[in-house]
Specification:
510 residues; alpha/beta; ten-stranded mixed β-sheet; four-stranded antiparallel β-sheet; 19 strands; 27% helix; disordered N terminus
Length: 510
Amino acid sequence: MMVRHLLLRGLCLGLSLALSLPAGAVCANTPSRQRPPNIVLIVVDDLRFDELGVLNPVLKTPNLNRLAKEGVRFANAFVTTSLCSPSRATILTGQSARNHHIVGNELPEPAGTRFFPGLLQQAGYRTAMIGKWHMGQGDAPRPGFDHWVSFAGQGVYLPDQGPGGHQMLNIDGKPVPQKGYITDELTDYALDWLGQEQTGGKPFFLYLAHKAVHEDFTPATRHEGQYKDLPAPTPATQADTAANNDGKPRWVRTQRNSWHGVDYAYYGEKSLDDLRRRYAETLSAVDDSVGRLLSWLKETGQERDTIILFMSDNGFLFGEHGLIDKRNAYEPSIRVPLLAYAPGRFPAGGVVGGMVANLDVAPTVLDLAGVPAPADFEGRSFRALAEGKPAGEGARQELIYEYYWEFALPHTPTTFAIRTDRYKYIYYHGVWEPEELYDLSVDPDETRNLAARPDQAALKQQLRERLFAALRNREGERVIPFDAKNRDGRIYRSRDGAPQGEFPPEWLRP
């Protein structure tokens, strides 16, 4: 080992003289290739694709900005189901909801479900899951992880918000009280585990899965009021006007007067402007968490031997089309931030325009680790894109989207969509609704539905056929899953809110 170290040092010195650079500058940019890289996957909740300081300068996210400026930002990253449990399951299984069968937030994963960290574990990685699991309501450790810190269901931001005023964590199968603000506490646990792994000699994989920034938006005390003077933008499509409603399905106008609509958001408990500000303030602790992780990697000399992937499980609407939250197939719902940071491996400041999806995360992580991906993975590695190379023949050309109606939040119907780099076609199953077709190249806000235009009939049919061909599961079937209803859910509307939507005029006859 000493001889290898001296040879490497001599090589660095020689290169530095040839390039007229300090020896440290050359060596610092050379990641260790003696073992597979450490990998950290950070998944946050419900973060919009544009909720980063690099895209929205009024936001103070210096550490996330650093990931983008010193790493790679994927400008067209999407999820195949914009809902917590199905999306996180897709990230961890490399499969779509129709195949991993985790289609809602109520039930746990089927027995025998395989998560890719188990493959890393078999390849010699030490693995940890710290944070929000949220496949079903249980918090028990799952196979594939050497260390486990989680909580039941959605979890809470503060301990006194838990059942009976006490929230518990599950740490390797043992109940432990939550002590503080959850984003900070999960980061504490992550750094504690990393500190223990530092002397283990094996590469590590950390899955840090935050609750933030899920509703009920609760910032850390130090960030309360951070954006109290921030103007809350109003999307052009938010107003309940004839122009905005033209071409939209009935459910869209109906939902604007509901738990997930601007007229009765969360039953009117908070103003939309206040929700918007608290959402941004809640993100600040996530940015602090990323900063603490970056500092630890630098202090321990592992910055250049570690790859960080940062993403969200869902997007989020704040008034677009009169809606809030996610679930639907509109752009703010399905687009997510995705950052890849690996000094010396990925080009600094790179922006990738190619389409990628949460479905592609599992094969990408395995590719980075040098572990073969199983044949039943549906996604494809975006490692080449992260490294600034051509995507090759396997480049993603389209995204297939699926969301299944939930009785607990019955506002959004079962939704299927296909999105290419230009067009989006949306179909609603089991309800009396028109289809939607948008040319995103000239209509990125999805305001002009082309589905009823005769000159677009051939395109609509082509996309429709491609969508339904892709929606078959691995058994070759098209199946609509559903769960047993056990409560009413969020069914209430305001008497003063918008009325139900109307049928398209072209459907009406004398």
